[in-house]
């Protein structure tokens, strides 16, 4: 028996108009063609979501899967449909020299949306040391 879901496409206007796919019902698996391997890794992150270089929304979530070119994110709040870019600060499980906490900073573009999760394509990324405030927020979130 197949899984029922409805796909609706809407156009996001602004810098680089594009269609955004939204699902209602049980979502299908995210696209796997562009990423060779997926790793089920749950890491807490903070995000800032932008539309045309303006901050629209911020919050916290947890990664579901990580690939070489994309991330599947669990986000409890619905993202605004006009989001064109996200900045993620992901709490990295390994420490620098066994002492200094790290965070993986990722710039990403939303690609697929479904209730409770979001698939994003990685635009750029780097590792940074985590400041005191970031560590407190990440510790409070899990």
Instruction: State the end-to-end distance.
Output: 37 Å
Q: Name the helicity range.
A: under 10%
Q: Could you say which structural class the secondary elements and strand pairing correspond to?
A: mainly beta
CATH topology: Pnp Oxidase, Chain A
Rg, please? 16 Å
Which CATH C-level class is it? Answer: Mainly Beta
What oligomeric assembly is this protein in? single chain
Q: What do you see in this structure?
A:
The chain has one helix at residues 132-141, and strands at residues 5-12, 18-25, 38-39, 44-51, 54-67, 70-74, 85-96, 100-114, 117-129. It has 142 residues and is mainly beta. It has one domain (39-141): Pnp Oxidase, Chain A, CATH 2.30.110. A 6-stranded antiparallel β-barrel has the order 4-5-6-9-8-7. The longest helix has 10 residues, at 132-141. The radius of gyration is 16 Å and the shape is globular. Mean pLDDT is 78; it is low at 1-24.
Write the layout of secondary structure elements.
Blueprint lengths: L4 E8 L5 E8 L12 E2 L4 E8 L2 E14 L2 E5 L10 E12 L3 E15 L2 E13 L2 H10 L1
Parallel strand pairs: 2-8
Antiparallel strand pairs: 1-2, 3-5, 4-5, 4-7, 5-6, 6-9, 7-8, 8-9
